[in-house]
Every structure is written in structure tokens, then in C-alpha cells.
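Figure caption, in words: inputs first, then the predicted bound structure.
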Amino acid sequence: MVGKIIPVPRLECIYGDKGCDYLYSKSVFLKPLPWTEPLAQLRDKITAATGYNFRIVIGNQYRSSQDSIGWHSDNEPSMGINPAIASVSLGAARKFQIKPIAGKPTDFWLEHGSLLVMHPGCQSTHLHQVPKTNKVVSTRINLTFRPHTGGEKRTRGTEQGARERIFPPAPCSLLPAPSLPPCVYVEKQIAL
Ligand SMILES: O=C(O)CCC(=O)C(=O)O
Ligand SMILES: [Mn+2]
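Bound structure (2-oxoglutaric acid present):
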């Protein structure tokens, strides 16, 4: 379908380091707005908890039960090889599913304030999605913090300190939950 514009079933935004442009599905181009103070604070908190460094955050807003994201892996080349991705969920709880590429899904609920970490390697072995649902659900926002190999590096203040501490990234000290694939970790509640 050449030239046909198909809207994604959710709202999206991106914040991050200057020049860390993001292209996904070979067709959707996102240009980051500068970090806001609350987002930068949350990024640094997640870095402190996981040991992973992040340069962009993509926000998804699921307005209702009919907003969703289909099976995919986050394997855009601009994130480098084997990215670690951490996401924070806000608002309504939604079912998140993850499965080995040719395997059966594991379902779990991402509640308000939960932190999901997909460790390096997860994107090559697993797919994930947030399906539509027939239940009535209110708005959910998901913030996915991601690395990026391009753009301009941050140079000031605590951001520089954070980068020096964890670059190259330390292995994440958080352990996977027993019921989940080993590449995933979920913390029920992070201090927001
Ligand atoms: O909303 C979620 O929990 C997942 C979002 C996601 O997979 C993505 O933005 O790539
Ligand atoms: Mn994803």
C-alpha cells in the first residue's frame, strides 16, 4: 500500500537528547523534544535502579480499550545492538504479553507505577504487545526509556555524572521474576 497513511491505535510522543531521532516500522519518524525536568528525574531514577543508560523516552497513551500495540520487538538500529529498555506504566492497568518468537505468550498486568525492564537480548528472542480488550478501561500512559547511538551527548550536571557512573552500562542487578521469561523483570511499584 504505497502512500497510504494508517494511524497508529494510540497517541505517541518522544523526548530525549538532541538529535536522537527515532524511526520505527521503517515509516514512523519521531523527533525528540528536549527532556522535561520530571522526565529527566524519572530517567535518572530508573538508571540508578537498573544500571542502564537511556537517551530517549517514547510515551504511548492508550486512550481506551481499543488502543493497543501489536506484536513486535524493539529492534530499531538506532538503539544499538541488544538494547536494554525500561518502561513505567501510569493510569489504568493493561495486560502486557511477551512470548518467545515462536512460542506461547506469558500475560501479566502492568499496573500504575510499575517498572518493566527488558534486558539486553530480549528483543532478539521475544516479541511483546499490549492487546485491545473488551473490558472498559480508562487512559493508560506508558513511558519507554531507551538507549540511542546517535545525537548529541548530554554534558551538564547530574546527567554527566549519571553517564560517567554507568557507561559502559553495568549489568542490571534486578533479577527476573520466576514466572516470567528470564529476559524480563517487573517491579510492582517504583517510587514516582
Ligand atoms: O505500553 C506498553 O507497555 C508497551 C509499549 C511498547 O512496547 C513500545 O512502545 O514499544
Ligand atoms: Mn515495544
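Residues 72, 74, 128 surround manganese (II) ion (ligand 2) (CB under 6 Å).
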